[in-house]
Amino acid sequence: MSAFVIVDIAIKNEVEYKKYIELITSSVAEYGGSYRVRGGSPETLDGSWTSERIVIMEYPNREIAKAWLNDEKLKAIHNMRRQNAHYCNMILCDGVTDN
């Protein structure tokens, strides 16, 4: 079953964040993942949640998504994201099967 990593992020350093994007993008594909949403203009339709940037990545399963996040060789790159954002909330959700 697919798993989705959903990221809600507010960037504080655009120049450095772009460097992060250049470095991290290929790792998503290396783990069998793909971007489903990357940025856009989030619009709250109901409730009080506000966001500047949303990223949604799909991975083959939950274990692979976690392996991507916890890969030691990507640690410095993930830290670039943390250092260049006001906040970064990340959640993991299972996909839906068509049953």
Biggest sheet strand order reads: 2-3-1-4
* Largest sheet descriptor: 4 strands, antiparallel
Alpha-carbon distance between the two ends: 12 Å
How many helices does DSSP assign?
Answer: 3
Spans where pLDDT lies below 50 across 5 or more residues: none
Order of secondary-structure elements: EHEEHHE
* Mean pLDDT reading: 94
Structural class: alpha+beta
What is the radius of gyration computed over CA atoms, rounded to a whole number of angstroms?
14 Å
**Fraction in beta strands:** 25-35%
Helix content: 25-40%
Cα shape:
globular
Q: What oligomeric assembly is this protein in? A: single chain
3D architecture notes:
The chain is globular. The chain has helices at residues 14-30, 62-70, 75-83; strands at residues 3-11, 34-39, 53-59, 85-94. The mean pLDDT is 94. The relative contact order is 0.35. The protein is α+β, with helices and mostly antiparallel strands. The longest helix has 17 residues, at 14-30. Helix content is 35%, strand content 32%. The protein is built from three helices and four strands. A four-stranded antiparallel β-sheet has the order 2-3-1-4.
